[in-house]
Design brief:
This protein folds into 2 domains: 163 residues, Rossmann fold; 84 residues, SIR2/SIRT2 'Small Domain', CATH 3.30.1600. The chain is 41% helix and 17% strand. It has a 6-stranded parallel sheet, sandwiched between helices. The protein starts with a helix and ends with a helix. The relative contact order is 0.19.
């Protein structure tokens, strides 16, 4: 790491130390470092799978769509673990510096990386729980994984109904509670970190706008430019797994 990078990373760390209510907002760029492809980049999920795998109407009406979705599900969930960025965010939560994690990701890796469940607000749902659309029976990931090994399209053992992951499909609204909490935390914070998001998917991308409108400082860590770069107090073009552990290291050596 060069001296210039050190200075920039330390500036970001000092902004956290100086804040009273820091919020982290994460996108696919955090989880790509765990081997999970994003949706829209070249070679990403939409290059490999038809979008109807995540279209609610198609999923309900077409067996072909459900087969495609479960194939995608298996590819996303197999051999995936938190990376240094997840662990760093989890550590900042446990130390009390980060008050909330708002995420567009559906993989549950923030919780596995140490972020307390009650601080994580999953705007697009989670692939760790599932619901039967017939009898509304709920299933955990381990149970569904077992069913998915025995059938290309798992069905509810109670009523033979369609099992759907608790993620937001095209044609569905965002979960009301998660959205409400995300809006609240974004409006309350005095420091808002965007990490690994291009800020092009709405309404999730409105969260930093809420923070800015209430006077919060904005830090963006992403590999490519975002629409809010010009409004940010600090922009760092690098991988989250490179900068976040350095931020934690600096904070641990210089606690508030």
């Amino acid at each position: 790491m060069n001296i210039n990078n050190d200075r920039i990373f330390h500036k970001a760390a000092q902004m956290i130390l100086d804040s009273r209510h820091a919020v982290v907002f994460t996108g696919a760029g955090v989880s790509t470092e765990s081997g999970i492809p994003d949706f829209r980049s070249p070679g990403g999920i939409w290059d490999r799978f038809d979008q109807k795998a995540f279209d609610y109407s198609s999923f309900i009406q077409q067996e072909e769509s459900r087969i495609m979705h479960w194939e995608l599900f298996r590819s996303l969930i197999t051999g995936v673990f938190p990376n240094p960025a997840h662990f760093a965010i989890g550590e900042l939560c446990k130390q009390g510096y980060v008050k909330a994690v708002i995420t567009q990701n559906i993989d549950g890796l923030h919780q596995l990386g140490g972020a307390p469940t009650d601080l994580v607000h999953e705007l697009h749902g989670s692939m760790n729980t599932f619901t039967c659309l017939g009898c509304r029976h709920r299933f955990t990931l381990d149970i569904v994984l077992d069913m998915a090994q025995k059938s290309p399209v798992p069905v509810c053992p109670e009523c033979n109904g369609i099992i759907k992951p608790d993620v937001v499909f095209f044609g569905e609204s965002l979960p009301a509670k998660a959205l409400e909490q995300a809006q609240k935390e974004s409006s309350l914070c005095d420091l808002f970190f965007v990490i690994g998001s291009t800020l092009t998917v709405y309404p999730a991308a409105l969260m930093p706008e809420y923070a800015l409108s209430n006077g919060a400082k904005l830090v963006i860590i992403n590999l490519s430019p975002t629409p809010l770069d010009e409004k940010a107090d600090l922009v760092i073009y690098t991988k989250a797994g490179k900068v976040l552990p350095s931020i934690v290291e600096y904070i641990s050596a210089n606690p508030a």
